[in-house]
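Dear support,

I submitted the protein below through the web form. The confirmation email said the job was done, but the results page showed an empty box. After a refresh the structure appeared. I'm attaching both so you can tell me whether what I see now is the final result or a partial one.
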Amino acid sequence: MNNREEHLDTLTEIRSLMERSSRCLSLSGMSGISAGIVAIAGAVAVSLYHGSSIISTAWERSYESGATTSAANLMFYIGTSAVVLILAISFAVFFTVRKAKKNNLPVWDGVTKRVLVSLLVPLATGGIFCIILLLQWYTALIVPAMLIFYGLALINASKYAIGDVEYLGGAEIILGLIAMFFAGYGLLFWGIGFGVFHIIYGTYMYLKFER
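What the results page shows now:
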């Protein structure tokens, strides 16, 4: 009887190791926290550019009046988004590589490639969709679309990642759908979705896996 229980325990442990080997470790908690801080800084930069608060901005006034966004404003939005994206990716790579080296884990392998493909397909589709919205001057719907497609990307990649990332993805989707009903408050929802949610998730990951 004891031998049978030992065999079952061994098989359970082997199965757990196999499942873990087929999934990559999640991003460092510090990656999420830093990405959230950068996103909030970007939202604050846009609000300062308009000389208004993050809750009631020129986005809302432009949407309600039907006015189109000037080329200068669009360039500032695109530039700010690019800076936020580059900084967030840079911090994510730095902290994740540091975490992998600390735990003697490979940074780049087959699982990592599958994670990237799972992320890039929804993100690329969402990016093209947002560009179409921009060209058609549906600027008030761009942030909700970003949140929704980002959430879909996280859920799509969650099968290869450890760390309950699907819950973050679900939260982003729900927030994006809510933002659709408040189209003039895109900057606020941007700060919540890409800023506050990332900080909360990153803190959770840090306390659970890295402390």
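Response: this is the final, complete result; the empty box was a page-load delay. The mean pLDDT is 77.
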